[in-house]
Amino acid sequence: MTRPRRRSGHRGRTRRPLVFILPIAVLSLVAVCFSAVPREMLATVSRGLNLTQPARDQPGSGAPARTAPAPTAPATSTPAPPPPAAAGAPTAVCGNAGVLSGPASAPAGAVTVPAGNNASLFGDQLPASTTYYFAAGTHYLGSGEYAQINPGRNDTFIGAPGAIISGDDPGSSGYEQNDFAFVGNGTGITGVTIEYLTIENFSPPGSQGAVNTNSDDNWTITHSTIKGNVPGAAMMVGSGNTIEHNCLTGNGQYAFNAYQNPGDPQESKVTGGPQNIVLSDNEISYNDTCNWEAFSKFPVRTPAGCAGAGQFDGCGCSGGGKFWQDQNVTVRDNYVHDNYSVGIWADTNNDGFDIEGNYFSANYAEALIYEISYNALIKGNTFTDNAWGTGAADSGFTDSAVYISESGGDSRVPNSFGYSTLAIEGNTFIDNWGGVVLWENANRFCGDGYDDACTLVSPAATQATCKSALGNSAANQPAGNPDYFDMCRWKTQNVTVSGNSFRFNPASIGSACTAARSCGFNGLFSQYGSTKPYSAWVVPVNISRHQNNVFKDNTYTGPWNFDGFALGDTVSWSEWTSGFKDENGSDASFGAQDAGSTYN
To answer: Which of 28, 135, 193, 411 has the fewest CB atoms within 10 Å, measured from its CB?
Structure first.
């Protein structure tokens, strides 16, 4: 075992509390404080829990060269077979008239909305069960921050070919840009359908969305282009939402933010957030134009509307899309590419995800993160050219296409798919900075003083009970009955990485891609714990020996390396597949991995 990359910590993105200011009545606001949990805190310096947050910088001149597109430019690509063949990117949705053009005439009984200023039509709450047909041309909602469309229950909004709803009218003197396009006024505005529309140039604040601003239930958004909305997200997502065949591109923070205020009548009884979501056949690209992570060398110029939105280093609040506390989610056949942060990020007590047939390409950071969450199937996806930007920053952590952080399978957390494991199987990985990393922060647990959530395995585990029980525990000793030592941890457990193809050619990435910069790695590891009862080597031993984490039956092509047992410990293919004794002083052994796999 060699240790050329021994460093003190991970490039952690710490998630701070985010404020959601959601309009629930015409020209009114309700401020809701949503406290998002910290992502990674690593043991190096004392900060109450002996934790630190290493800065995460953007790569400088050593970063692989990549030409950055204009933030709102739709991607073009060559059609190819679906994953895992990976001969090329799927057919683009953005700019594809065959997917995005609506009917040339109004449906029977629809209210036709002419192009121009529509403030007189949409100034009040709309009646229920009405269809609106937007004629070709650009539509404006009237000057004012809260000039918006307030749908009624079961309303439908359809666009003719070329129909655009714009939040800004630069040709109108003194026009004040609109924050939101479609806002449900409180719970109960369900069953809304939006299709064949271009929705652009709104200014939702950070962590809010231009469409479905209150995350109302049972909305369907399809065959639409939602772009250039800054500094926040294109849309919010609530329970029973279906998001299909859309172009979601060039938005300031996210394409979508799947978070719902507590108390929604359709919220999950397990996770407390939205449930039964379908995200399929969308193109999700070039989002996070506002640089919410405050990268020091951002690859594109941020739009003017991003200034002062609340960005900060390590916010953990950016990317193609974010799921928070969601359950029973299908993410299928999406084209997720060129986002200026993570592609798709499931963060904090998500449960029951079916992630299949997606194509993740050229996202600046990881393609897919599954963090402090439960039970998922990640199958038949293609991952190519991801994490080149963050990888070249040489943060001291193994950047990868798929990053599993304190997440795994647990039968105590039910879901409609019946999943009780986390399976990563039958995927194709091509020239990403890294492949799959399974990580568990030894110092992260419910009651740690930084995560505002708690685990889902037992109602007995709460912030208060975990803090009390674990604070009185001896080092490395289970807490007894109830077993808070077990219940208070999010664990990377019951994870299987099998039947995947890992292809890696450092020359395809560039000169920055070296083993010393953690390029070309898979991993299963933790780090030395500094907080009782998880101190010393207890978590590295558990994640690598006792939590049923298995790599097997994979195919490796190229000079792959591996991280095993402890952060920064590089092991060879021989050590990875035969097992080895740790040399950090733990006197522990790392079990053999990748049985049945081949290394070419």
So the answer is: 28
pLDDT digits (tens, 9 = 90+) for 393-402: 877 899 999 9
Pair 445, 533: CB distance under 8 Å: no
SS3 490: coil
Residue 24 and residue 586: Cα distance in Å, rounded? 56
Residue 354 forms beta bridges with which residues? 330, 377
Q: Is the peptide bond before 533 cis (omega within 30 degrees of 0)?
A: yes
Average pLDDT over all residues of the chain = 86
Give me 218's structure tokens: 């049972």
Residue 319 near residue 346, CB atoms below 8 Å: no
pLDDT tens per residue, range 322-370: 999 999 999 999 999 999 999 999 999 999 999 999 999 999 999 999 9
| Structure confidence by residue, pLDDT tens digits, 298-311 | 899 999 999 999 99
Condensed to tens digits (0 to 9), the pLDDT of residues 33-70 reads 333 333 333 322 221 222 222 222 222 223 333 333 33
Phi, psi values for residue 221, rounded to 5°: -125, 115
Q: pTM for the whole thing?
A: 0.88
Chain centre to alpha carbon of residue 92? 21
**Count of other CB atoms within 10 angstroms of residue 181:** 29
pLDDT above 90: residue 74: no
Task: Give the pair of three-digit tokens for residue 498.
Answer: 């099998």
Question: What is the C-alpha to C-alpha distance for residues 392 and 406, in angstroms, rounded to an integer?
Answer: 24
The gap from C-alpha 256 to its chain's centroid, in whole angstroms, comes to 9
| Cα–Cα distances in angstroms (integers) from residue 201 to residues 36, 94, 96, 107, 275, in the given order | 27, 16, 20, 27, 29
Bridge-based pairing state of the strands 550-552 and 495-498: parallel
Amino acid at 534: Y
Q: How far apart are CA 543 and CA 43, in angstroms?
A: 17
| Residue 593 identity | Q
Q: Give the whole-angstrom CA distance, residue 478 versus residue 281.
A: 46
Token couple for 154: 């079961």
Distance in angstroms (rounded) separating the CA atoms of residues 486 and 178: 49
Q: What percent of the chain has pLDDT over 90?
A: 77
CA–CA gap between residue 303 and residue 193 (Å, rounded): 30
Find all residues with CB under 8 Å of 179, minimum gap 6, and list them. 23, 145, 146, 148, 167, 202, 203, 204, 205, 208, 210
Q: What is the DSSP string of 418-479?
A: ---SEEEES-EEES-S-SEEEE--TT--TTSSS-----SS-TT--HHHHHHHHHTSPTT---
Cα–Cα dist 75/492, whole Å? 35
SS3 102: coil
Confirm if 518 and 5 have CB atoms less than 8 A apart: yes
CA torsion sign, 51 to 19 to 286 to 369?
Answer: positive
The widest CA-to-CA distance across the chain, in whole angstroms, is 76
pLDDT at 434: 98
Gap between the Cα atoms of 350 and 123, Å rounded: 37
DSSP-derived secondary structure for 68-91: PPPTTPPP-----PPTTS-SSPPP
Length of the chain measured in residues? 600
Please state which of the ranges 39-53, 216-230, 495-509 shows the lowest mean pLDDT.
39-53
pLDDT tens digit sequence for 6-17:
222 333 333 332
Count Cβ atoms below 10 Å from residue 365 Cβ, excluding itself. Answer: 30
Are residues 567 and 537 in contact, defined by beta-carbon separation less than 8 angstroms? no
